[in-house]
Amino acid sequence: MIISVASGKGGTGKTTVAVNMAVSMGAGVQILDCDVEAPNAHLFLKPTITETTPVFVPVPEIDEVKCTHCKKCAEICRFKAIIVIGETVLTFPEMCHSCGGCMAVCPESAITEGGRAIGEIEKGTAREIAFVHGRMRVGEAMSPPLIREVRACRDPERITIIDAPPGTSCPAVAAMKRVDFVLLVTEPTPFGLHDLKLAVGAVRILGIPCGLVINRSDIGDDRVREYAAEENIPVLLEIPFDRKIAHAYSRGIMMVDDMPEWKNRFRELYRSIAACLGQGGGQ
């Protein structure tokens, strides 16, 4: 099973839910931190990293000897990653979307694929959990290629929990598509409800079952619960606004370690997800 823990906006407690559920389930679980622009699951899990691999994306390299400066490469590139000025070809790798169109249209085969590092993947273990996260290079604009590489590290023999990037743009979609269930973490505030609606819209376009965790559930109002009832979205867990929880979070300590009674609640959260999918929740 693949569960993507997502949110319509940052700061809702998405990573808190992902890491606590993973630790509560223990052996047989893998966590993939796909929030590659700001990964922080490692701050709580404190994994032992055993492997680091750079990730590259293909970018064009020009053979000036073969190039006739016909400009076909520049004409096909929507993102202006190649520009031909007189008899000079300029490439802008940071703007390249790695589509390969320039190579396909070059009549002289003067364009080949080079590689540009966009980040790295680190693998390791945290307790009994298999851990993988991506770290995007500072200044990079496009995270989906790195997110795809993190997801390619999935172990099909394990239950996979994905910590998705916040929001509903391309990075979030890259972390949510082709999963079995999306667990949306929200809070009962006007902003929380607004962004939850956007997230639910994205999940439904993808055609994936979803459920809710309401964090800081005893603040705000009941409009998130009313919306969930109207849309037939199950509320699978509520986490109160608790000073003890906040204090543990500020020290990088997980709820299930500081408050062991929460371990059963996160196990029950997984069983509820499995029940939504018509599966047994044996963990």
Structural class by SSE content: alpha/beta
Instruction: Provide the number of structural domains.
Output: 2
CATH architecture classification name of the largest domain: 3-Layer(aba) Sandwich
CATH superfamily (homologous) name of the largest domain: P-loop containing nucleotide triphosphate hydrolases
Fraction in helix? 25-40%
Give the number of helices. Answer: 11
Number of strands: 11
Give the overall pLDDT as a whole number.
94
Low-confidence stretches: none
Elements, N to C (H/E): EHEHEHEEHEEHEHEHEHEHHH
Using the coordinates above, name the CATH class of the largest domain.
Answer: Alpha Beta
**N-to-C terminal Cα separation, in Å?**
12 Å
Globular, elongated, flat, extended or rod-shaped: what is the shape?
elongated
Strand content: 25-35%
- Gyration radius over CA: 22 Å
Any idea of the CATH topology of the largest domain?
Rossmann fold
**Numbering strands along the chain, what is their spatial order in the largest sheet?**
3-6-7-2-8-1-9-10-11
How would you describe this structure to a colleague?
The chain has 283 residues and is of the alpha/beta class. The chain folds into 2 domains: 212 residues, 3-Layer(aba) Sandwich (Rossmann fold); 46 residues, Alpha-Beta Plaits. Helices cover 34% and strands 28% of the residues. The chain has 11 helices and 11 strands. The protein has a 9-stranded mixed beta sheet, sandwiched between helices. α1 packs across α11 and α5 runs parallel beside α6. The longest helix is centred in the last third of the chain and has 17 residues. The two termini are 12 Å apart. The mean pLDDT is 94.
